[in-house]
Amino acid sequence: MYRQDSLASQGSQGGSTWLSDDLDYQRTIESLAASEPRLRRRDPRIVLKNIPWPFNNTRIAVLESESSGLPFVKKPHQYNDPEKFKLSLSEETPASRPNGRRIIIMEGQAPAYIGTLGQHFGIHPAFFVDHERDNAPEAFKSNDAYYNISLPSVQKEHVTMRYYQLLSLPNDLQNNFRVFCAETGRTVTTTRILGKFTDSVCLHRKCSIWRRPREGGTGWDCIVITDPPLRCVGTSYEWPLKPIPVSPITRLHQGGYPDFIPHQRQMKLQCGGPPRTTLLDDLCFYLHHHSELFDSNGVDLVLSLAQKIVASHYRQHVGFLQTYISHVQHSMSRQENLEYFNTTAVEKQWSDVQSYERRLSYYCIDLESIMIQCRIPFSSPDTSNRDLIQSSKGDFQFLYMSLKDVRRRVEILSSSITGLAGMAGNRQAVAQQVLSRKEALSVKALTLVGLVFIPLGFVAGLFGMEDWFAPGGEKFWMYWAVAVPVSLLAFVTYFLFEGNFIRGGRFVMFKRGKKEGGEGDVC
Q1: Among 231, 260, 297, 382, which one has the highest count of C-beta atoms within 10 angstroms of its own C-beta?
Q2: How confident is the model over 255-275, as a mean pLDDT?
Q3: How far, rounded to the nearest angstrom, does the alpha carbon of residue 343 sit from its chain's CA centroid?
Q4: What 3-state class would DSSP assign to 158?
Q5: At 59, which helix (H) or strand (E)?
Q6: What's the CA gap between 174 and 190, in Å, rounded?
Q7: Contact criterion met (CB below 8 Å) for 257 and 311
Q8: Which whole number is the average pLDDT over 42-54?
Q9: Which H helix or E strand runs over 436?
């Protein structure tokens, strides 16, 4: 059963205390709650999944650079203590000067860190709420599970990008439609094709980036929020939540997304590739080894890197969908007959294709949201631009085109399966007709047997078959004289009815081929 008790400690009730532990920032949240109602409570979808709050495994990485052109240096400690992290923000370092650059990456949100970052940098609390919300289109038994997103024209200092990571889960979890991350509530979407679940699942992810230039200099500050790795999953919305550990055996689909660094630079440096463990680790890798490639983007340096990583995930996911759609289409082509497509299999396949179509519509919505936030026009990519490494504009335009093409193919596939369902239904109807014909022939044979023996038995009973009428008696011939005409009369009457020569109590005479005397002369 679903949890019905109070979830005030998890922020399901009104108020501003759930998002931040800092009293000053709580007052800021309370003053802005009238314009941003989402600040008053946690995402009802996550509450229904019984996801604990606050998140207890928050990881923070800080990278600093004294000025533009100098490499970023990652601080050795991870700031597991919120108080130490708060003190570190006030320290006077070369990177804290007007020309310095500082990047703070937070993996998993917790009220202690949210209050510290929000109050120190003056960040609008919608930045943290946008990342916390799980906008997955799921069916919940609650009227609170709905979208509540601001207009795309609203000017913000942050960008929230929703993307999808392909993973492989244990076999006992692959055939479950209801799987989610037990730490963040992010949905894990399974895929079924031709009646079988695939090895790969789709983990919903988010990356949120806030950045602001510093006054009186060329420096800037950037805050990044990422999701933690998939360590445990939930499969039920019942209380209490029973997490299932999966982190030691979770694998990336085909090793993860391909690197986007130019091949010439890869050959020159040979520094390896991103670890692909978490987005935090991947960003740290690219900032350490390849930040100069994106240095000209200034305050959007981290955003450009994150866009490349997100676009790489989308590209891998689009290829994944294209492969499986082609597999379904191939199974329906080059066939002499489709006997193995029975009605049950077709219905299951039709349901799977509806799932693809629904998911693709939301993928397009998420990609459109990224393009709107990043001011990327919805037009064809400019392939003549050679400076693609510093911009993801062409990448997202190509991905948007590819997703629309995949969605069109799925719609065509849905129509094909609908036609296949009609073919399977017709085949089943023909099979039923053949079976009915066989049954009718069997009944007809029994009827003929009855026509032979029933009149004989009737006449035998009529004469009593004793004395003179018994076999060998003087008048036994009278039995046959009566029985044979009665049997013939029964046969003639049966065949008249069987041949439809008697209609409505009238005899209708037909001639084979051309009709005589008009249509159905009555005699």
Answers
A1: 260
A2: 89
A3: 24
A4: strand
A5: strand 59-65
A6: 6
A7: no
A8: 86
A9: helix 393-463
Query: What pLDDT is attached to residue 451?
Result: 66
d(CA 217, CA 188): 44
**Alpha carbons 465 and 458: distance in angstroms, whole number:** 11
Cα–Cα distances (Å) from 360 to 186, 187, 321, 496, in that order, read: 18, 15, 9, 63
To the nearest 10°, report the CA torsion of 307, 312, 314, 316: 180
Structure tokens at 247: 């982190």
- The one-character DSSP state at 187 is E
The pair of three-digit structure tokens given for residue 325, joined into one six-digit string: 């759609």
What SS3 string covers 98-140? CCCEEEEEEECCCHHHHHHHHHHHCCCCHHHHHHHCCCCCCCC
Rounded to whole angstroms, the Cα distance separating 179 from 75 reads: 36
Instruction: Look up the pTM and report it.
Output: 0.79
C-alpha to C-alpha distances, 338 to 328, 344, 352, 364, 410, nearest whole angstrom: 14, 13, 19, 34, 20
Q: How far apart are CA 206 and CA 185, in angstroms?
A: 12
3-state secondary structure (DSSP) of residue 76: coil
Looking at beta carbons, which pairs linking 434-438 to residues 24 or more positions away fall under 8 Å? none
Asked whether the predicted pLDDT for residue 93 surpasses 60, the reply is yes
Burial of residue 458, with CB atoms counted within 10 A of its CB: 0-12 exposed, 13-18 middle, 19 or more buried = middle
Our CA angle for 119, 121, 124, nearest 5°, is 70
CA distances from 7 to 53, 77, 418 (A): 10, 34, 46
% the chain with pLDDT above 90: 31
CA distances from 459 to 71, 446, 471, 484, 495 (A): 116, 20, 13, 10, 21
Question: Cβ contacts of residue 458 below 8 Å, gap of 6+?
Answer: 486
Greater confidence, 322 or 141?
322
What residues are paired with 232 via a beta bridge? Answer: 245
Sign of CA dihedral 63, 315, 414, 201: negative
Give the β-pairing of 200-213 and 158-168. antiparallel
User: Nearest-CA neighbor of 105 among 127, 78, 126?
Assistant: 78
List the structure tokens of 511: 């001639």
C-beta separation of 59 from 30 below 8 A: no
Tokens of 516: 């005589």
For the chain, helix (H) and strand (E) counts, in that order, are 12, 15
Q: Check if the beta carbon of residue 219 is closer than 8 Å to that of residue 99.
A: yes
Those residues with Cβ within 8 angstroms of residue 96's Cβ, 6 or more apart along the chain or in another chain: 102
Q: Which residues contact 400 (CB under 8 A, 6 or more apart)?
A: 364, 367, 368, 371, 378
Does a cis peptide bond (omega within 30 degrees of 0) precede residue 54? yes
